[in-house]
Amino acid sequence: MVGQGLFGSFFVAGFECSTHRRRDGRRLDLLAATRHDVFAAEDYRQIAAHGMRAARDGLRWHLIERSAPSCYDWSSFLPMLRAARDAGVQVVWDLCHYGWPDDLDIWGPEFVDRFARFAEAAARVVRDETDAVPAYCPVNEISYWAWAGGDCARFAPAARGRGGELKRQLVRASIAGIEAVRRVDPRARIVHADPLINVLPKSPKPADHAAAAAYHGAQYEAFDMLSGRLAPDLGGRPEYLDVVGVNFYSDNQWALGGSTIGFGHHLYRPFRSMLAEVHARYGRPVLVAETGAEGTARAAWLHYVASEVRRGPRGRGAGRGRLPLPGRGLSGLGERAQLRGRALLLARRGRPAGSSRAAGRRAPAPAGNPGRGAAPAAAPRPVGRLGFEHAAFDRGQLG
């Protein structure tokens, strides 16, 4: 841990819990695909045995509220909640990870109202099952979802040119969810997660510098809306921005309109500098909510990211003079790099170890950025039982 942390370990495990519909309408359920929903007790015992006392996991809203509005079946959630509790693992529960009930229109006001009721009911279940301080991510990756689902039609709602509208709707839902959760348990910690990027101009021209700066700055739109800095009509407040989660990969830096700035390039910005920018902007604890690397690069990437967090620049209120980072979520790198027996576990679950590889994606600028556009393909991103975001993009599943 760096300073006084929010979580019980420096490393945070993660279980891929996307539940989106592809653009062809097929529903994906990554908790079922990886069989974490079946083996949750074993999974949590294993990560606890390896010193990880915190994790990211998720609820499947489309399963819980399937029969009728506000009628909840918690049978898909309770085994995971109890498994984490019994293993002594604190979980940041994603309440909405790209998926929602089929009878609900994401563009309408009912989406916000239904999500708030669902969040409140979920918080009651958690409160009744455990005495630990709960943590929630109301809506995962608002900026990425707005871009992929609202501008590029990569997955539901599979719209084009509506990214800004979708982002505002997701912010409304997140705010309503935060209020609902805190009515049940005021102790609850709220984590928001979005890609952390660095965008540079492709040339010394002033116009290119301005475009790159706008693209880079737009990554903060969702956080700014939640905190009330931007679009105050949405109802954002500073207290809604509790823990700032950042998702970071080696391909999250590039020249606007150009190529990726690879790790080791002289223009590659140190990760600790990017973390310092986030903390200076918001003054809130920062969680590395997601990171990872491919193949033989995993160990070097783990060492780099961990050392950058440890070497974070000095900042007021950070404990030992460093950034107040509550921990860092590796969303699966910990298991793939360190846990023994992975091949046997995956084989037992009907899939050979290393059989699934996700098509890479560069973290886009948030919807509404004047320079946005489909980014060129980047290095493949790994998938495993403790998978990464968008694991479902594997094997052409985007259609």
Any descriptors?
399 residues, alpha/beta, TIM Barrel, 13 helices
Question: What is the strand and helix layout of this fold?
Answer:
Blueprint: E1 11-14, H1 30-33, H2 40-49, E2 54-58, H3 61-64, H4 78-87, E3 90-96, H5 109-129, E4 135-139, H6 142-150, H7 163-184, E5 189-195, E6 198-200, H8 206-217, H9 221-227, E7 243-248, E8 253-255, H10 271-282, E9 286-291, H11 298-310, E10 328-329, H12 333-338, H13 342-348, E11 357-358, E12 381-382
Parallel strand pairs: 1-2, 1-10, 2-3, 3-4, 4-5, 5-7, 6-8, 7-9
Antiparallel strand pairs: 11-12
Helix pairs in contact: 2-4, 5-7, 6-7
What does this structure look like?
With 399 residues, the chain is an alpha/beta fold. It has one domain (11-396): TIM Barrel. Helices cover 34% and strands 13% of the residues. Strands 9-7-5-4-3-2-1-10 form an 8-stranded parallel beta sheet. A two-stranded parallel ribbon has the order 6-8. Helix 2 (40-49) packs parallel to helix 4 (78-87) and helix 5 packs parallel to helix 7 (163-184). The longest helix has 22 residues, at 163-184. Mean pLDDT is 82; it is low at 314-322, 327-363 and 365-399.
